[in-house]
Amino acid sequence: MERILRRWRWPMIMAALAWPAVAVRLGVFEAAVPVETALFGLAIVSAAFLLTWSAEAAERDIPRTLALAGLALVAVLPEYAVDVLFAWKAGKDPSYAAFATANMTGGNRLLVGLGWSMVVGIFWLRTRSNVLALAESHRTEVGILAIATVYSFVIPLRGGITLLDAAFLIGLFGAYVVLASRGEVEEESDLVGPAETIANLPKLKRRLAVLAMFLYSALAIVIAAEPFAEGLIATGAKFGIDEFQLVQWLAPLASEFPEFLVAGLLAWRLRADAALGALVSSKVNQWTLLIGCLPLAYAISSGSFNPLPTDTRQTEEVLLTAAQSLLAVILLINLRMSLIEGLALLVLFLLQFLTPRSAVPINVFSAMYLVLAAIFLVRQLIGMRPFFGPPLRARPVASPPADRPEQHR
């Protein structure tokens, strides 16, 4: 019994962390708005951990490329719930449209600016290799992301996100899933912690456990998403924080934290290819399916075919996010990213994140991304190697020791 509790303690802890939010929704107790918001956010984060472990364990039953795509999708499911909720509310109250765009653009920029550069940095710390190379199988993600990125520059020209955009982007995501499913199932995959515990169960028990964790997490997210989003806005108003900034950065950071943690652990265990591949897949998810879901939710809620409206500020945010995405795609055009390239993504992100909007127009940062993208594209096409990196030969990386201590996520 003690051994079972030790092996399953983290899933049980994460499952239990959702209950305070449930108690608040059921009226068992009340607290100040910031406290309740934190509890709802905790439920979303704990649900994301459960979703991540179950998705990784599913590698034993579906192709690994598809499993990574599924991992990327379920890991950002909390963000989907919050963002789609904002779009739904915008159908009744147009003021929420700004929050839907803010959450979507903030999540995308955090993923590339912090997530990708984090994986490259950890890889360098562990191996002292300046170049992180992706497997050939990741050409699918990079190719789909390139198509979505080029298309995204059309969105700011329309003054809103339309159902036509939804049809194209959701269809593109469908094509990605089909291509990702064309792979071999790996009977033995390198997992640790709760994911390994689940994956090593007999087939029927494993599938039932994965299904149960998914349903439990989905229910927790449904319960917590709406009050969490509303609480963020109320908290921002109470403390005089700009609501747009709060929704743009704090909500995505909370919902994507589990994904960042998992990617960091994978990179630390010398699985940087899988770590970066999962984050690239997450970018594909958010830049296709997430954007496509917003006008759908808005149209159903409003009972019209009108696009999800974007004012001048949101249009500039979408353009900046598209420009960052373009630079990121160009850096990975040869399935490699150097340390300096990762630092470039990080520095550019921090510059636009820390600089007050009143001090420097946001379009200045969009121009910086586009100029660098053009420079890097020329260099990539000429040399087909990382811009600042050494020739394509990256130093081999040793496999992690077989007798590594037990880890958890």
Give an overview of the whole structure.
- The protein has 409 residues and is mainly α.
- The chain has a single domain, classed as Up-down Bundle (A middle domain of Talin 1), CATH 1.20.1420.
- The protein has 16 helices and four strands.
- The strands form two sheets. It has a two-stranded antiparallel ribbon with strand order 1-4. It has a two-stranded antiparallel sheet with strand order 2-3.
- Helix 3 packs across helix 4 and helix 4 packs across helix 10.
- The longest helix has 36 residues.
- It is globular, with a radius of gyration of 21 Å.
- The C terminus is likely disordered.
Question: How are the SSEs placed, and which strands pair?
Answer:
Elements: H1 2-7, H2 9-16, H3 19-25, H4 33-57, H5 64-75, H6 77-90, H7 97-127, E1 131-133, H8 139-152, E2 160-161, H9 163-180, H10 193-199, H11 203-238, H12 243-268, H13 272-302, E3 308-309, H14 312-331, E4 336-338, H15 339-354, H16 362-383
Antiparallel strand pairs: 1-4, 2-3
Helix pairs in contact: 3-4, 3-11, 4-5, 4-10, 4-11, 4-12, 5-13, 6-7, 6-11, 6-12, 6-13, 7-12, 7-13, 7-14, 7-15, 8-9, 8-13, 8-14, 9-13, 11-12, 12-13, 14-16
